[in-house]
Design a protein that fits this description.
Layout (H helix, E strand, L loop, with lengths): L9 E6 L4 H17 L7 H4 L8 E5 L5 E5 L6 E6 L8 E4 L2 E4 L2 H15 L5 E5 L18 H11 L4 E5 L14 E5 L2 H12 L9 E5 L5 H11 L2 E9 L11 E7 L7 E9 L3 H12 L5 E8 L6 H8 L5 E5 L6 H4 L4 E4 L2 H12 L5 H4 L2 H10 L3
Parallel strand pairs: 1-4, 4-7, 7-8, 8-9, 10-11, 10-13, 13-14, 14-15, 15-16
Antiparallel strand pairs: 2-3, 5-6, 11-12
Helix pairs in contact: 1-10, 5-12
Length: 381
């Protein structure tokens, strides 16, 4: 049997409570991948392991303080910590009332795991699909630099690599020049799901457009349009910079730039949906211009103001479908909504972990271009 390349260290995955479902899926993928590659480069004893997940205890005290306890040795292991800092479903009792765990506490739990490891692991990788404080990535005046400070904390605690997805500003990696921050995109998985669900749309590509909801998402829209062979349009957000409401300047109006959208199917692509107000405004603008079916593809969906308006827009025929990943928490009520399609990212994360653990390059996983071309070729598009 060919034992090369040899694994960097025995694999151990720590999936925090906020990411247990995704962690279990990733673990299953790795088990299948290693059994499939058994004849090539993985040792029998490793390939036949039932699970690579390491059990931990997350203990929360009644005053809100907490601690993490490892239940088995991690000495010499290649540890991967998976955490969804955007999961708002995790709760605990504090002073007699139910408290929902926020991003700050989730990030603190990552640091608690690193502290519990005590430097005994051979290498530590943090997989944070939604990068903590990524929207506070640069300073404007007297503001905090939350994301940079958080990354530097992870570096000081012994993290070797950080894996994240569709980060708000990739330049934030300059805050930690001594360790790597790999930024992945879910483009291939989204396109794959989109083609599976809506393949008939591509029979006549002259009837479809990719729309960028703002200038910041233009690079993403250009990539989608070039891969799918579609034209592109742009909505420019005109903001009132004299006001700050809930941490941002309110949008006054969306201005459209691009070719006529009448009778066109529309794919709006963005990195995240927060409240959805921006999407609703753009959809109404497109419908006024007599656009046909409207689809939304996004990496993260928060639905911070609920889904009532999404239900309303679907029932009125304004929005046909929303495609979003499972990289952050999505309630079951939303997953089962007729207008929502979940894009599973566990397979990609499993490949990343597998490659890093076996000291293989993850460069092929960073660029989805070839994969999308093959996908379109197989679909005869």
């Amino acid at each position: 049997m060919n034992l090369n390349p040899i694994m960097y260290g025995e694999l151990g995955i720590i999936a925090l409570e906020n990411c247990s479902e995704l962690g279990n899926k990733v673990d299953c993928h790795i088990q299948k991948n290693r059994l499939k590659n058994l004849k090539n480069d993985i040792r029998d004893d490793e390939a036949e392991k039932k699970s690579y997940l390491l059990p931990i205890r997350q203990i929360r005290f009644s005053n809100g303080e907490a601690k993490i306890q490892l239940t088995e040795s991690v000495r010499g292991k290649d540890i991967f910590i998976i955490s969804d800092i955007g999961n708002y479903s995790c709760t605990y009792d504090m002073f007699g009332f139910v408290n929902h765990i926020g991003p700050d506490e989730h990030f603190q739990d990552i640091k608690r795991v690193l502290s519990a490891l005590g430097g005994k692991a051979r290498r530590v990788t943090v997989i944070m699909p939604l990068l903590y404080a990524s929207r506070q990535h640069r300073r404007k005046g007297r503001e905090s630099l939350d994301c940079a400070i958080a990354l530097q904390e992870l570096q000081r605690l012994g993290v070797n690599d950080i894996i994240t997805f569709d980060v708000h500003d990739p330049n934030i990696q300059n805050a930690i020049p001594q360790i790597s921050l790999e930024n992945l995109y879910p483009t291939y998985e989204i396109v794959k799901t989109f083609l599976k669900e809506e393949r008939d749309l591509f029979i006549d590509r002259t009837k479809m457009l990719v729309i960028s909801p703002d200038t910041g998402a233009m690079d993403r829209a250009i990539y989608y349009s070039s891969m799918l062979g579609l034209d592109i349009g742009l909505f420019y957000k005109r903001r009132d910079h004299s006001l700050i409401i809930k941490g941002e300047n309110p949008i006054v109006q969306h201005e459209y730039m691009g070719r006529d959208v009448e009778n066109q199917n529309i794919l709006i692509v963005d990195d995240m949906i927060a409240s959805g107000e921006s999407v609703f405004d753009i959809v109404l603008q497109l419908k006024k211009r007599k656009a046909n079916n409207i689809y939304v593809a996004t990496t993260f969906s928060f639905f911070t103001k609920g889904i009532e308006k999404f239900n309303e827009f679907y029932e009125k025929g304004y929005i046909k479908r929303v495609f979003s990943t499972n990289l952050t928490y999505i309630p079951k009520t939303i997953k089962h909504a007729e207008w929502f399609k979940e894009v599973d990212m566990s397979g990609l994360i499993a490949k990343v972990i597998d490659n890093i653990n076996c000291d293989k390059s993850i460069s092929p996983l960073l660029d989805a271009t070839e994969g999308i071309k093959e996908l379109l070729a197989k679909s005869n598009l």
